[in-house]
Structure formats: C-alpha cells, structure tokens
Amino acid sequence: MQKKMEAQETELKVQSGKLQLLQKLMEENKELKAQLEAAKARIREFESQDPTKNIELENITTETADQDILLTGTYESIHSISQEEWEKRKAEIEAKKQQQQQQDKEKQMKQLKKLDTQQKHHQQQPKPKENDTTTSYAHIASRNVVPKKR
C-alpha cells in the first residue's frame, strides 16, 4: 500500500509538472499572439502611408510568340513615359502582333496543304491491271461451301 501511494505521488508530481509546463506554454502563446497583432497593426499603418499603393497601373500584354513583353505605365506617374514613346511602343507591339498573325496563317496554310496532299494520296486507288485475275470474295467463299444434298 505504501509503494502504491508513493507511485501515485510521483505520478501526481509528473502530471503537476506537465500541467505547469502547459500553462507556461499557453501564456507564451498569448504573448506571441499579442505581439503578432501589434506587428500587423504597424504593417497596416505603414501600408496606409505608402503613396505608391494607390496608383493604378495599366497593363498591356501582347499575343506574340515571346509572351514576355509587358508594358506597364501610368499617365499621372512620375515614371510615366512620354506620349511619343508610348505611341512608338504601341506601334512596335502592333507590328509584332501582325507579323505573328501572318506567320500563324502561313503555318496553317502549310499544314492544310500537307493534309490535302496526304488525303489525295490515300484516296487514290491502284488501277487494276489488265492481266490481273483476282477472284472475288464471293467466288472464293463459294468454293468452300459444301453443296447441299437433296
């Protein structure tokens, strides 16, 4: 009975230690959450003071083979390009787009011509030779049929 009581006391001490550790961890967790909220509040404050956040950007992408052309500019921005440069870039983009469309049309025409020649080749039947004495399927099948007895 004495050993049983001692074992229960040690178990109680172990559980008590675990409980204290858990309470300590919970307090640290609350402190960290409070620090996180304070940091988020500071970030929101800094973001609201950022003057570049409210600038809307105009993105123009092209449908060229090299999809890496991305022009970004704003009319009111300090970094905006002049109207002449903008028109020049738009003209370049349009020229590349038309060139790409022309190349695509040429590729499609080549593919269509290739398919057309392949179909014509497959549609052509070999002409029967004059000396060719091929027997029809019906003729061959009739040879293998056993005559009916009457």
Automatic annotation (TrEMBL):
Coiled-coil ranges (or none): 19-49
Keywords: Coiled coil
Region (Disordered) residue spans: 82-150
Basic and acidic residues bias spans: 85-119
Identification of the protein by name: Uncharacterized protein
